[in-house]
Amino acid sequence: MGRAGPNLPVKDLGLIGVMVVFSISGYLVTKSWDN
Asked: What are the transmembrane regions (predicted)?
């Protein structure tokens, strides 16, 4: 893992984006299921 900074590799940005999308979608799914 490299240093976190403004010059992140595109690969890392893509991985972070996927993780964020999964986290948000999972949160929305569980929230909708609770209701």
From this structure: 12-30
